[in-house]
What does this fold into?
Amino acid sequence: MDRNLLIISTICFLAAVVRTVVALRAGIFRPGTFNFLAIGLGFVFQTVFLSIRGHAVGRCPLTNLFEVFIFLAWSVALIYLLVGPAYRLSLMGAFTAPLVVLLQGFALIAPIDVRHTVKVPPNPSLEFHASVSLIAYGAFALACIAGVMYLVQERQLKTHHLHSIFYHLPPLTDLFAAITRLLWWGFILYTIGIASGFFTGRPLPRVQVIAAIGVWLLYAAILQGRHLRRIAPKQIAALCIVGFSVALTLLWGITFSAQTHSLP
Amino acid sequence: MNLFCVGLSHHTANVETRERFAGSTGAERALRAAGCAEVLLLATCNRVEVYGASEKRVSTDEIARCLLQKSGVSDIEHSAALPFYRYEAEKCVQHLFRVASGLDSMVVGETEILGQTKKAYQSARTSGAVGPCLHRLFQRTFRVAKQVRTHTEITRGSVSVGSVAVDLAQKIFGDLGDCKVLVLGAGETSERTARALLSRGVSDLRVSNRSSDRAQELAQRVGGSAVRFDEWPEQCREIDILITSTSSESPLLTPTNLRPMLTNRVDRPLFIIDIAVPRDVDPAVNEMEGVYLYDIDALRSVAEQSLAVRRQQIASAEAIIAEHVAEFLEKVLLELNRTSRAAEQSPVADSSLRASQL
It folds into this structure.
């Protein structure tokens, strides 16, 4: 039942992707309410799924790689729904939906939904640490998406070849401002997430700590470069993509190893 | 009820001919006297058209004569010798939908025509020349034009060099209110571009020219400030947009002399509009980080891209129009004809019915 909700949610996001692709191919792309509604509906189904799963496992549903991916997809959609309309970045939905489809599609297809045979007792501190860190990942994902949008816009301006999408992308300076804000939000949440990890009452695996601090340092370096005006906006946009790719790979590695170790 | 359109446009007549038939305030009255039950005159710089509804056919010669009244000329050649076109019923509806949607304009997709059509409708309505037939036709026309604009890319992008430059500036900086602009060279095109930027919110405009008098003159005209010519390189450290159109034989800006000006502005883009021929800016400058260079050919190319996209959208717009034409004929025109016939049989009911339809 709960997986069906997730399939419906993925179909909603997929509808937004298909509509965008069809419109782009026809050369008449424009961000409309359809994408926003499709993503909103997909988000509702995600939320219901996570809620049911949470009740089933008796804690925040982050007990395996499958749930981590779904929670991450949920965070991405959440941050988009908060940030998109606020910064008039409605086009971001066209870029957000494919990422969510990829995350959820992978989670649904890959055999990673492994149920623990031993029920882990709830640990609010650990759940807070994991969920806040994943919401931070959502902000980094959106910064990555804004980075892609920036590079697309920048490339078109440099080459003087303006595609239909050019007229619907926000101005470069607005996109850069959005990237900066998203990076700051992600960094603050990630810092809280890491710090709370030390108060979970459980010893943290060294690999996880090193990986988490590595990601934290990477984003700290990007923000420092931005603050000191040492890194050009185009490079910051590219670094957001690199940073999120690294963070996602490490997240996968950490969760996968943690899951393997915790299995009886 | 015969629904028709008689007119001249840039497709069929030169400006002198269009001027001859531009109509006047008396034209409307004359057309009604000639037998038009309802009439609307659409006169713009590119077209003079009469939209009318009549019980009996009013000849094109008669309409042409009414339009000529302004100049007091009563004898005109036969309409066959004049570049008038005439559309009836379905063709008339289709033509009006195309005109209001910008498909029949000189620059495909321009939106000014819709405003002009609305104005013509308001004016005819105020004078009482519009009845139920034209009222419904024009209401539908405004709906169609809006739908064409919303559902196609027919109005996308700019098609003139000046407006392309301003659109690009907005795509880089967003709000232009905080942008500092330097105009290098006091040419006509740079003045036009500067004015276009001012109209979109630029408040800090500086002008520099080899002749300081001309710089002062232009600065005064556009409400900017003049800068000495030897100071312009220093200004490049502060400004966001540079419009250059000097008559220099060799490039004024090269990557070598621009690089030091870009230090300390790593997060601020520089948009350079080079409209000089020969060019004032070395094309290699476009390869520099954060610099966006558009010369006159690049601006024209963007304008042509927009125009090409607009032309590609004509088929989609025509499809929308065809749907509305069919629906209008099926529902509205038949209903109006029925009403009209009923009114003929019962003359007393006629005025009240028309009033209610309005």
Chain A has one domain: 2-262.
